[in-house]
Design the sequence.
């Protein structure tokens, strides 16, 4: 199960944002930062957890909602490594990749 120091959950207009100090499946912020992808968000470069790191954390957490997300993340990783998402950015329509059912609430 989830082995981390939880700081809390922020509810945003885009959905819940789970804040963790040291997520299961990672050795903490420094390792996640080193492996992060950088995305342009409204003209600002923002480090974002890599798909590989997110998969490792969700596999380690083992919660039902994390397991539900894994098929989407495995497919996203495969498409990304095949170059199909290269340079796509945030405006890419990932509708076909979304899980068939909505994840459970936090």
Sequence:
């Amino acid at each position: 199960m989830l082995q981390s120091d939880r700081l809390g959950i922020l509810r945003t207009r885009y959905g819940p944002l789970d804040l963790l100090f040291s997520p299961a499946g990672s050795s903490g912020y420094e390792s996640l930062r080193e492996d992060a992808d950088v995305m342009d968000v409204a003209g600002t470069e923002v480090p974002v957890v890599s798909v590989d790191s997110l998969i490792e954390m969700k596999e380690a957490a083992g919660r039902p909602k994390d397991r539900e997300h894994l098929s989407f993340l495995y497919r996203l990783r495969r498409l990304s490594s095949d170059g199909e998402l290269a340079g796509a950015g945030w405006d890419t329509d990932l509708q076909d990749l979304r899980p068939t059912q909505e994840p459970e609430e936090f």
